[in-house]
Amino acid sequence: MSSNSTLPNPLLCFDGLPKFNEISPEHVTPAMDELLNHARNEIESLAKSDSNPNWENFLVKLEDMQEKISRTWSQVGHLNSVVNTPELREAYNINLPKLTDFFSDLSQDERLYSKYKELRNSKAFDLLTSSQKKIVENELRDFRLGGAELPSDKKLRFKQIQEDLSRLSTKFEENLLDTINNYAIYIENKADLEGLPDDSLQAASDSAKEENKTGYKFTLHSPSYMPVLQYCGNRNLRETLYRAYATRASEFGNPDLDNSSLISDILKLKSEEAQLLGYKNYAEVSLASKMANTPGEVISFLDTVAKKARPFAISDMQELTAFSKQLGLAQMEAWDVAYVSEKLREQKYSFSDQEVKKYFPEQQVLKGLFKVIETIFCVQIKISHAQTWHQDVKFFEITNSDGSLVGQFYLDLYARNNKRGGAWMDEAITRRKKTNTLDYPVAFLTCNFSPPIGDKQALFTHDEVITLFHEFGHGLHHMLTQVDEYSVSGIKGVEWDAVELPSQFMENYCWEWEVLKHMTKHVETGENLPRHLFDKMVAAKNFQAGMQTLRQVEFALFDMRLHSEFDPFGKKTVTDLIEEVRDEISVIRPPKWNRFPNSFSHIFAGGYAAGYYSYKWAEVLSADAYSMFEENGVLSPEIGHRFWREILSKGGSRPALESFVAFRGRDPSIDALLRHNGMFS
């Protein structure tokens, strides 16, 4: 990123794509100040207007205002996540409270709330499209959840809570990022790394050389950490790395980066927020805008899944424990589980992840992914050009068969320093029809895969391929929308517990022979994935599915109970609660010093508080939706068109359950999920 103060502020350019080559941290504050000042003036004008509110004179102006703020801030937030620098972090943290303050005021503005209610009860409402009506209904709900009906003194407190939560969540994520970036361990002797794959050894060696050091450097970034846990025969090294990973941002490390007090403060504030709004707990607040109705309904759902999975998980664990004895482990510990599991899988199915990985070079994987999309949705994907934030980032466009634009996306695949971990899709530009123009949707698709070594292509594990398909599913939800109104376009307005449907739906294609035979090519021989190896992969697909399902239920149940039953002012600690959940659910018990909550950014720094169950909830929907493709052809353009028309194109313009039923012809069933996971009985 560069800067030239004589040029227009690139963050205030709304024609075309973001100008990433021109954005500098010093642009952030002037841009946000100008946008927020303009927005406040617009709100005053709308609030004082004597005109009867309708779509054109009221809602369109609010949509204009919010879209510009969102588009600018999405660029700032994205850069802060993928090329984090001290200067950018400072600019982000200076402006985040301003943004929070603005939206807190907006959500509590009784004058605007009154205008929405007036519109809802007028004849003008009957003239609105279904999408426009949905926006009005959503806004009325969000005003209530934003504290608009509170008395003045409680409004002030509610607003302060929102500002504090925003600041604490950001600090939680920063502490986690800094803990990961600050950690490294160096191994001098290659003999101490027995079993580690060649590409992992090479990457570790290159990392050390970048610091003018000898030997091998290992970090807590997933491409460095996971291969050690999975393949390295050095048990002491596995324990050392596991301990560092399991205690990230906790009292066992730098006290300045300990998230423990932040967790406590966040939970207290969320509890207070719920009380102010008249709810028993924060989980009820969270579910007010989701498909699920009550915390009890969610807990009952999770209990059902756990009961189905538990016999399989117990069997998985018994098999793993017995096998660990064959490897000479008198007592299998947490840092042994991935290693023993990999050895067991190799013995049972006669292949390893590393063997499979050689068939998934980056270019072939992307070609295969794009072929699936092009086949089922009858579109085309091709490389395009745009300014980016890093040399590794690529830019693509999706067009209809007649060449007309559908959407565009940035693809940032590799892990690197100063980039937060995980994988995600975010909105750069949201589809919206204006008076004389149509803004086409643009997505950020971000992963943290192992980068290429030297002049070779990057190689992806099959799990990484699944992750790529997952995030692309989110991208399709954003880019294939046909909704013209900003607030319910793409993923906007979609219930949080349904937003994972398209992403988990796409994962299924990673297990189809018709797909994999076209998206694989051995990095050395050029051969496609052989059918016998594919069959082994499918046979191993549900390896430890019971244990993996219980692990997800453990996290989801902890989250829901934390926000519905846990007293943040009481004597019981968050650690006590997760241990209780593990007593009920888990077949693998982490050490007492494991501090998973301290890195659970989904619920403490993301939008998943009292919503982590969404992954399993949406998995039911996605498996059932995919079963319709299984019944009619997994690459069927006819069913693909129906999926696009009834689910992807609708965005948040109608309830997710209505969209699902319109596609599937009935209510969702859990049967397909259990069958896909090999747990149908």
Number of helices: 27
For the record, the CATH architecture of one domain stands as: Up-down Bundle
Q: What sort of overall outline do the alpha carbons produce when their principal axes are compared?
A: globular
Average pLDDT level = 95
Oligomer: single chain
Classification by helices and strands: alpha+beta
Between the first and last Cα atoms, what is the distance in angstroms?
56 Å
* Poorly predicted tracts of residues: none
Can you tell me the CATH class of one domain? Mainly Alpha
CATH superfamily of one domain: Endopeptidase. Chain P, domain 1
Radius of gyration: 25 Å
What does the largest sheet look like? 5 strands, mixed
* CATH-defined topology of one domain: Glutathione S-transferase Yfyf (Class Pi), Chain A, domain 2
**Number of DSSP strand runs:** 9
Question: How would you characterize this protein structure?
Answer:
- By secondary structure, the protein is an alpha+beta fold.
- Among the domains are: 10-149, Glutathione S-transferase Yfyf (Class Pi), Chain A, domain 2 (Up-down Bundle); 183-247, no CATH class.
- It contains 27 helices and nine strands.
- The chain has helices at residues 28-48, 55-82, 86-108, 110-120, 123-126, 130-145, 152-182, 198-210, 222-231, 235-246, 260-277, 282-287, 295-326, 337-349, 353-357, 362-377, 462-479, 501-507, 513-516, 531-540, 545-564, 574-585, 601-604, 614-632, 637-648, 656-664, 671-676, and strands at residues 185-187, 216-218, 379-383, 394-400, 405-414, 424-429, 432-433, 438-439, 442-449.
- It has a five-stranded mixed sheet, sandwiched between helices.
- A hairpin with a 4-residue loop joins strand 4 and strand 5 (405-414).
- The longest helix has 32 residues, at 295-326.
- It is globular, with a radius of gyration of 25 Å.
